Amino acid sequence: MATAALPRTAREVRLAARPDGLPEPRHFAVVRRPLTDPVPGRVLVRNEHFLVFPGLRTLIGGETEGLPLPALASGDTLFGPAVGEVLAAPGDGPFRPGDRVVHMAGWRDHALLPAADVTPVDPALPTPVAHLAQGSAPYGALTRVAPVRTGDVVLVTGAAGAVGTLAGQIARLLGAARVIGSTGSPHKADRLVRELGYDHVLLCGPEYPPFAEQLRAAAPDGVDVVLDSVGGEQLAAALGAARQGARVAVVGALAGQLDADRGGGTAPVEIDTFRLLVRGVSLGGYLGTDHPGVGAEWLERFGGWLRSGAIRFPYSTVEGIDRAARALPELIAGRHFGAVVVRL
C-alpha cells in the first residue's frame, strides 16, 4: 500500500431532489463524506476528469426499464465515466500509485473502488482524457448497423454533441462523400463546418424552416446513411429522405430524453413504414453490448487517428467539483460544444 498521507474525505455531487421536469442546479448538492482506509482488493483513485452525459437525465427521471444502469433517487451520488490517478492499491494487485485508470465513479474527487471495477488507461490513446470520448457508439453504428460505403451521403442528427462531433469525422474517414449535420445553434453550425468538416448543417428550432424542408434542400437526391441521436421530427424527416437501400442507425433519443414533459425514457415518433418497405431501408438501434469487439477496435483506430491528426476530440471543460452541479443542466440547455468534461 502507499505510505503517503491519504485523503480522509471525498467531495461528491448528489441528487438533492428528483425534479419534476428537467433538472436544474438546485436539484444537486456537493457534499463531503468520509473515506475509509483502503483494504485489500480495493483501489483509491483521485479523479482528474469525468464525463457529463445526457443519459443521466433518464436515470434521474426514473424511466430505466431495459437499461443496464440503475435509476438515481434523491440522495444518490451521480456516476459516469472518469479518468484518474491511483493513490493507493494492494501490493499484490495489478495497480500501483501513479497509474492512470478509467472507471465509472465520476462526479466525485476521490473514489474507493474494487480493483475489478478499474481499468488501466489504454496506451493507444495519446491522453487519458481521450478515454471519455463518446466515439465507440457512432463508430460501431457506422461500421455494423449502418455501414458507410465510399461515396455515401451521411446525415448525423445532434451533430454538435459528444456523439455527433465525432460521428461526422468518423463518417468521412470511413469514405463518406458528403456529411450533413443538425444543431440548434448557428454558432455551433459554423464550428461544425469550419473545424470538423461537415459540408452542411441544418438548424433546428421553431424559428427555422421545417427540418424536412431543409433536408430536402441540402440533399435533394436523398441520403444513404443516417446516424440519429435525436429522434422525433428529425428521425421522421431522415427516413423520408432515405434513398433506396439506405441504412439508419439510432444511437440516442434526445428529443425524448430532454423533453421537460417526459421522464427521459420514451421518445415516440411517427414514421412511414410503407416508405421503409418499398425503399428497402434498414432501421436499427445500436447497443454496444451486442458488439463486444467494437470498444477495442475503436480505441485502436481512434488512437491512430488522433496521433495522425485525422480526427479531433472536441470537448468543453467545466472547472471544479463546485461547478459540476451546473454541468448537466447546461448540457441539457445546449450551452456546450462537443463532450462536456468536468476537470478537477
Automatic annotation (TrEMBL):
Give the Enoyl reductase (ER) domain ranges.
21-342
The record ties this protein, via InterPro entries, to: ADH-like_C (IPR013149), ADH_N_2 (IPR041694), ER (IPR020843), GroES-like_sf (IPR011032), NAD(P)-bd_dom_sf (IPR036291), Zn-ADH-like_protein (IPR051397)
Task: Spell out the molecular function terms from Gene Ontology.
Answer: oxidoreductase activity
Q: Entry's PANTHER family?
A: PROSTAGLANDIN REDUCTASE 3 (PTHR43677:SF3), SHORT-CHAIN DEHYDROGENASE/REDUCTASE (PTHR43677)
What's the protein name? NADP-dependent oxidoreductase
Q: Which organism is it from?
A: Streptomyces piniterrae
